[in-house]
Amino acid sequence: MIAGRYDALRERVLQANLALGQSGLVILTWGNVSEADRVAGVFAIKPSGVRYEGMKLEDIVVVSLETGEVVEGRRRPSSDTPTHLHLYRAWEMVGGICHCHSTYATAYAQACVRLPCLGTTHADTFYGDVPVTRALKAQEIENAYEDATGAAIVDAFKKADPQDVPAVFVRQHGPFTWGVDGMEAFEHALILEETAHIAHVQILFGASQTMALGYPNEGKLDKKLLEKHYMRKHGAAATYGQ
Ligand SMILES: [Zn+2]
Hints:
alpha+beta, binds zinc ion, single chain, 7 strands, seven-stranded antiparallel beta sheet
């Protein structure tokens, strides 16, 4: 294969998709990761309907952020590409996006239930509840459905910063997560799945009977603890890591 102009970006997107394929978050071809190169004005994304095993750099598709057209690669891009495009256009600070149908996160999405911040595992990554998107209008479902899904995600963050809570449940569908690059977007999908799993187990324990009635404040993490944990890893005064 002749070296392509976007090989470095495609390689990163390949590795993030392979990581997703091996993570246990997806079966078959479900799920996709993309990453944007803002300087080049493109993003690279998984091809549509291609298995993770044996996926190669040349399978990864490069799409223009301006036109939405494929600019490199012979495959058709993921069917969710218009959703990714919508988010990259709306949120300039986002560098990578991941979508999957992992079990617990998808259960929350299907139930249309926000994931409340119940503990510090959640607070380390998500600065508050993970929201659910609005319902799509019939017209949106009929025309440009995947783009409308992106619009609904953006609407869910009208009053919140998507960098503070880098995840959403698309109503009756599944989770989308994002980050500075594709690998971080994938890692946020992993964390979201684990956090949703923990919340589910907590409900089974009956640790908070009131939670089943709509998660009132009693069951939620103290605001000070939420801030403490989130700010240890994020922001100017972060102390976590090397
Ligand atoms: Zn999906």
